[in-house]
Amino acid sequence: MLGGGFIAVNNVQDRINVLNTNLEDTENTLRDTDRELETAKEAQKDAEDAMKTAQTNEKIAKDSLLKAGRELVVQRDRADKHEADLNTTRAELVDARKFSESWRLFQQANGTQAQIRQKLATFADVNNQRANFLAENVILLSQIEKLGVELSRYTGTSVKVTLPQNLQGTVTAVDAQFDFVVLDIGESQGVREHGELLVSRGEKLIGKLRILDVKKDHSIANILPDWKQGEIQTGDLVIVGN
Hints:
By secondary structure, the chain is α+β, with helices and mostly antiparallel strands. The protein is built from 2 helices and 6 strands.
């Protein structure tokens, strides 16, 4: 009976030893698992950190790319502007060289700047003298015409009076009974006594006038009966004949 009890105790002890061994193995396994879990967590954190870093780096890379693109556009615009400025400068340089060459040839033909100034001054003096002569000539011709008109009044002879070729006016009043008209042009426009004007309406010639009396901005003219081809009316055009 004691022998059976010893065997039972031994069996229990063996069982306890096995359980202790299993417990130790399980604890070791649990520790290993905890370490692996911690390692996995650290790996996951590292992966997450790496992903965040990669995302940040990707954003930085995109921003850098956009910035580089903008800078490239700015640099291209600046380069285009510099090229345009360069082309403009070249064109201006060509023009300046052409002008310089033209001026050199002009000086060869006409002398130095001082000589050219002297020639221009001389030309201006001659031109002024010519203008004065023409003005005096116009005054003299006008006086001659007036003297001729005055003389014709006493001699009964006709006198030819020249009127400006571009002179034209309008009939403003008509006296059919005494055959004279009033015109809206006078001495200021170049009208002279005894000058002759044609009267037209549209493309039709109506008659011819001879200036009788001249005021500053209007005049009175007789209707020449030999030229009368219709009744002259207010608004008819008067022009200088050939």
